[in-house]
Task: structure prediction
Amino acid sequence: MIEQDNSTGVDVPGGKRAIGSGLAHRFPGTPLLFTDLSFVLCPGETVALVGPSGSGKSTLLSILAGWVKPTAGEVRWEGVARTGWVFQNPHGVPRRTAIDHVALPLLGQHLTRVQADQQAETIMARFSLTEVSDRQFRDLSGGEAQRLMLARAVAANYDLLLVDEPTAQLDMATAATVNAVLANVGNSGSIVVVATHDPHTRDSCDRVINLADHQPASEKARLEIEAQP
Amino acid sequence: MSRSIDRRMRPTAVLGEAIRDVSSGTTRMGVFALIFILLVGLIAAADVNAVAGVVRQVVGFRAAGASVLTLKAEQSVDGQRCSRLMGVGAITGAAALRPGQPVTLAAMPSSPVTGVEATPDLLALLQTIAQPITIDPGTSAGIWLSADVASLLQAQPGDTVPTSAGPVQVAAIYTWPDDGRGRDLGYAMVTPVAADGVFSQCWIETWPLSDTVTNLLNLSVINPNPDNPATINQLNTSLGLQLDGQALLDKRLTAQAGWVAGIAGLLLGFTATRSRRLEIADALHVGITRTALLWQQLLETVIWVTASLIIVAAALLWLVGALGQEPAWAIWLTGLRAVIAAAATTLLGALLGASSAREKNLAHYAKDR
Result:
């Protein structure tokens, strides 16, 4: 695990990059969530976005998606055309099979059904889903469903993948099965950012951006007071 | 740079997704087809029933002779002129009549039968206003007996009946109910005669009713007698003077059935796909194009709408048969119009519902699940 959040000027394979420079954000009438945040995100690694509750993890994901304009600073995207999300609550089509969910984005890439199913099986194997590939989505466990969402995100071949609290709704044992395959998302050629407060998820990632290190002084003091027993 | 990916979904893949959605129950076609069948089927059935009612009213009006106008002018009606009125404008039948000699039947010497002479065209007119009517196809010449007389004689078409004027052959037996119509032919024996000569009545059947036929009817009069002018009357006034079938159709309670069914279909189709907005937004999010998704939703909707349409059409056919009202095909097609309108708007609604799902609302849809 590498603790690093201020890297710039990195040579990137494939030319995809998301570069944040001097980012700060506050919602109207509220204090700054974070400030003075800069980073470069590249494919090939999974970056954990951590910080206490209310520190702006989900907001930063929205800024990375381009949905929210930061109060200060800017995000520059290079080679990023498609951004995908994996939410904390997995959602799918209840009566369609697991493999159908992974094959769908591949069918959308002009593959035949046979080709899509073959590739889907390969991807699902990386996420320990081979056993449940013919099972309907409604019959999957929480962990299986969340791993399926990650496998489908890999099949969708996003340039930037934003994963929001993937283990928040799972018990520890189930969460462990998700954390065990999380690195496989980073190996897919996408830029991957995982917002999490789960230390095990954080440990499964290659790099960490900790928003606690970018709190304004007053906010940091408030959070410390709140953290006291 | 990200590698270039062909985002066009193959048509076979679109079809395959539609089939899998249907076969897996994702489309919920059973539910929506049932709603379509019940909702649209009831609307169309109500319309079929209403149209059949109007047709029944019109047919009853004509069958009772209410659409027959009779001109009476003693010894002043030209048979040829009267007969030639048939086919002019809305006149569907025309025949001239005059009193004949009273006939005494050998079987009933104390009850003379009214003798009537009429041009042969009267038989065609009787087929509209004197049902049921039975005609002996092998008897080209012969008299026509009212059913009242025939039943007393126990005569059938083709029988020979002895009369005071000698034996006559029965060519047809017609029904002349006591439903308010003139009784001229109620207890009568009609002898067809050539149209040459002078008659005392000219009957025309006209449909739809028209004011202009009165003028036409007067054309049959020759040598009008100022002391005894011609009179024109409706053969049967018990059902009213006028019946506007088109107005009845236009004003029927279900006249807007097509629109109502269309709106119902639009809402149903919209609901069917709008309820799957999370699935559609998600498919957009993983890279399926809007075009491919619309085709897929359209195919899925076509499958259950077609199945529903066939079922409703068959049910309407059964209903029309049960109602027993002719013209059955025309009545069925009228009901079917509402069903087809609903089917078309269901497809439109499905497309609108699918189009309304937005990828940017994916998180919102997921939260609302």
